[in-house]
Amino acid sequence: MKQSFDDILNDCLERLARGEHIQGCLDLYPNHVQELAPLLRVAKATIAAASAAAPDELFKSRALYRLMAASSEQTRPRRRLPSWTPALARPMALIAIVILLIGGATTGMVAASANSVPGEPLYTVKRTKEGMEMRMARSDISRAQIQTQMAHNRMQEIRRLMLKKEIDKAEALTPVVRGHLRKAATFAGVSMTPQRNKGHLRPIPFQPMPSKHLIGIDNLRQRMQQDVKTQRGAMKDALRQVPPQYRSSLESLVGQSLEEYDTLLKSLTERDPSLQPVK
Question: For 145-156, what is each residue's pLDDT tens digit?
Answer without folding.
Answer: 999 999 999 999
